[in-house]
Amino acid sequence: MIAFFTIFLDLLGFGIMIPIQPFYVETFGATATQVTLLGASYSLMQFLFAPFWGRISDRIGRRPIILLSVAVSAVGHLIFGLAQTLATLFIARMLAGFGNANLGTAQAIISDVTKPEDRAKGMGLIGAAFGLGFIIGPAIGGVLGQYSPVLPAFFAAFLAVCNLAFAWFMLPETLDKSKARAPGRRLISLAALKHAARHTNVGILFSMTFIYTLGFAIMEQVIGLFIQHTWVDPGLDPAERLRMATQMTAIYLVAVGFTAVLIQGFLIGKLSRKFGEQALAKYGLLLLTVAMISIPLAGGTGVFPLMVMTAIILAAGSGIFNPSNSSMVSRAADPSEQGSTLGLNQSLGSLGRVLGPAAAGAIFELNPSWPFYIAGCLTALAGIIATRLKPTPYNPVSSGSLR
């Protein structure tokens, strides 16, 4: 639970920034493409440095990496709040992305302290932390953003400082020093990916992570702009438009977070034991495909509650897929390479969050509905790839089935 709370505070600061960021960046004269590129810059640093943090954590321990990375993210949030130019906003988000590239290390903590048969439930705790971050974070960000568009950034920095203090006093070291690795590759590379993919299913799981995250990131980066485009009157005062867009985006993200917490915090362990992680990953991707395609259809009705329903389906799909996929990666990895392998997996996800936002803004400017149809095609492709997974002794096929 200490690791869960540390991760939760980390992600809460991230969630606070979501409702206000796209609309605040627009006040600097940014286009939709530049807005999504800002999100891509954050993920670019995660792509580059998730294996870096994970590999070092395999050598010196999880605790010092969590402490250092949280401190770096606090500085990034602070600079964002103080920024006066668009370039400084990019620098701030890249710094925060560097600090928050620690999810692989956080997953390694869970791997250190859970048995293989309980791994999916343990990974679900991280998913629940994500979900709570998406419930509480956007709600706080939406409220604070109505007083000042930079207040969420300062509050995120404050939370990171609190997280640093909490981890300093409460987070124990979980790495078994007898399994510590000698110095090796620290950044993502083709050689590192090939090395990890020598284990059964790892290469397939890496592909699923990248393609799923690419589609999800395309959706995620333009969902606020889509809500603003569809439900906020362009004739309103700019300040009122900002307030309404922030509120409606926060409502959508809270629905995502609440559903994710319910599934990943309470149900994923039971579902995993009954149906098996491979089956859950496939059905999760199916739900995600349905949700992606439903978003522009709901927008065409003009009924916002229908839009919120797509959030529930979306969160159900991601809530089933993410912990199942992470657990399978953890089980398939060499026990002495948990941090680095999970870091590589996280880095591939971050690459998806680089390329997705980089393209999402330009696609949105062509047609606001196209990003969601493209995202649906990508999650469907990930589902097809999931059919190539081989049964393993660590992931027994269950007799249960989803109906």
Topology overview:
Blueprint: H1 2-17, H2 21-26, H3 32-60, H4 62-82, H5 86-99, H6 103-113, H7 119-145, H8 151-170, H9 190-196, H10 202-231, H11 238-275, H12 277-301, H13 304-332, H14 338-366, H15 370-386
Helix pairs in contact: 1-7, 1-8, 3-4, 3-5, 3-6, 3-14, 4-5, 4-8, 6-7, 6-14, 7-11, 7-13, 10-11, 10-12, 10-13, 10-14, 10-15, 11-12, 11-13, 12-13, 12-15
Concise synopsis of the structure shown:
With 403 residues, the chain is an all-alpha fold. It has 15 helices and no strands.
Helix percent reads over 70%
CATH topology tier name:
Growth Hormone, Chain: A
Q: In CATH terms, what is the architecture?
A: Up-down Bundle
Shape, per Cα inertia axes: globular
Q: Specify the number of helices.
A: 15
Encode the helix/strand succession as letters: HHHHHHHHHHHHHHH
| CATH class placement | Mainly Alpha
Low-confidence stretches: 182-186, 394-403
**Secondary-structure-derived class:** mainly alpha
User: In percent terms, what proportion of residues is strand?
Assistant: under 5%
Task: Please tally the β strands and state the result.
Answer: 0
Please give the domain count. 1
The major pleated sheet works out as: none
